[in-house]
Structure formats: structure tokens, C-alpha cells
Design brief:
The chain contains five helices and six strands, in the order αβββαββαααβ. By secondary structure, it is α+β, with helices and mostly antiparallel strands. Helix 3 (about 90-150) runs antiparallel to helix 4 (about 155-180) and helix 3 (about 90-150) runs antiparallel to helix 5 (about 180-220).
Amino acid sequence: MTRTNAVFVFLASVVLSTAALPAPGAACSYSYGYDDKGDRLSWALTSDGNTSMSSLDEKDSFDKLKSEYGDDFLYIRDGEDRYVIRDRGLMNRARDATRPMKEAGREIREVARMRVEKAMGNSHEERDRARLARRIGRLSGRIARLSRDGEDTEDLEREQAELQRRLDDLEKEGRDRGRARQADSDLEARSQKASSRMSQAARHMNQEIRGILRDAKARHLAEPVE
């Protein structure tokens, strides 16, 4: 496996391990890693056993808020100001805005999983080819020595022929994979599209959070957090 593939497999494995989908029936938790740094806007929503948040930076303070406000509220930090909103309508509005982000996140994870599986498959086949080539080399040496001494090498030659057939099959699969570069290109396009969708969804989410906070303040539904 090339150094580039090795690095990718490691990074993608980390991504998959930290962003894996929860088991059915388990509480869900999503962190989108998107924060409007200019105005330090961030948010977290917990409802019906599910938690979504814009950044893990707020996790510790958010966990403390849950001990005070329970498991159903929207938390928004706008600069140095922090608020809790418990109005069900506004919370539903925030939850609806997270759906495009979750869909894009699932697509990104699926593409990453496919890339990891492909890279791991390539590495296994490369090791198999190298192992077969070494065995064939050793057999060739034995056959040459035994032939020189007038020994029978028929069984070794049959074994060598079988190993060579297996090596040829693996090399043919490698050539076939070379013709699958268009599929790799399609996968890359799918990844870029999902990333673009995530960025657009995150921008829309922050716009929606700002609107929710404005409405909550106007209706006296935003509870300041000390």
C-alpha cells in the first residue's frame, strides 16, 4: 500500500469511528463542527433523546445546562450572550433546519466508508501478490537446485504453476480495477457534492438560528443563561 493510501486509510478510519451512525433505538448525537467565528454563534438542541450541536466546544457547558433544564431545550450562544429556548414551536423549527445537515453528513460518512473499504481491499491484494511472488521465487530456486542434482521436480512444478495462476488472476483483477477509474471519479464527485451540501445546510442553519433567536427575544421566550 502506498504512503498516500496508508495516510488516507488512517484518517478515514478516524472519521468513521467518530462519526458513525448510532445503533437503532439508541440516543443520537451529532456535532457539525460549524461555527460562525466572526460573531461566535453556536447552538445545541436536545429533544426526544436526540442531541445536535454546531460545535463540540460547547459540550461541557451544554451538559451542565441539561442538568438544570432537562432534555428538551434549544441553547444558543451569540457572542458572549447565552440563551435557552424551551418553546416547542421554535425548537421544532430548529430541528427541521438540522435535517439537511444530517442527510449530507450521512452521505459524507457513506463515501468515506466506501473509500476505506476500497483502500483496504487494495492493500490486502497487494500483500497477497507480494506473498505469492515470494513463494514462486523460492520454488523456482528449489526446482533449479533439484534439477541440477537430477532430482524429480514434477510436484514442485505443479505447485509453482498453481501459484502462478493465482498470481495472474490477482494481476488481472488489478488491471480491471485500473479500468474502474471512472467509478473513482464518480465517488470523488459524490464526495464534493455532499461537502457542498453540508456547507450550504450549515449556512442556512445559522441563518435560521439567528431568526429563531430574534423571534424568541421578541416574544420573551429566550431565557438568558448566567
